[in-house]
Amino acid sequence: MKEIALSEMDKISEKYSRIGIFHHLAKFSDDRINNKIRDFINHKDYLTAYNARTSLGIDTAEIIKREQIKNGIGTKKWWEIWK
User: What's residue 76's pLDDT?
Assistant: First the structure.
């Protein structure tokens, strides 16, 4: 089963399908599968990176902070949010 999961994981390109399987595949506790998931922990897409981290039990504070800065949260006054 692990071999099938490992070979098929590379074929999934749709974002929401990929983030859904991170949590299922991490339950195998296989280093090869976890290393493939680790490839996504710094992904440019926030949801992909966040779910890759949570599936492996990695702290998400860094990725959350990156997204907040990218969206201007915490860098502007509360009344300048719409700018």
Answer: 67
Q: How far apart are CA 69 and CA 27, in angstroms?
A: 32
Q: Report yes or no: 52 and 46 within 8 Å, Cβ to Cβ.
A: no
The Cα–Cα gap between 75 and 69 comes to 7
Q: What is the per-residue DSSP string for 54-68? A: HHHT---HHHHHHHH
Whether 74 shows a pLDDT value over 80: the answer reads no
What is the pLDDT of the chain when averaged over all its residues?
88
Structure token pair of residue 25: 């595949």
Q: How far apart are the first and last CA of the chain?
A: 50
Q: Compute CA distances 60 → 57, 68, 76, whole Å.
A: 9, 12, 23
Mean local confidence (pLDDT), 52-74? 89
Q: Which two tokens stand for residue 5?
A: 């999961």
Given a contact cutoff of 8 angstroms between Cβ atoms, the answer to whether 50 and 56 are in contact is no
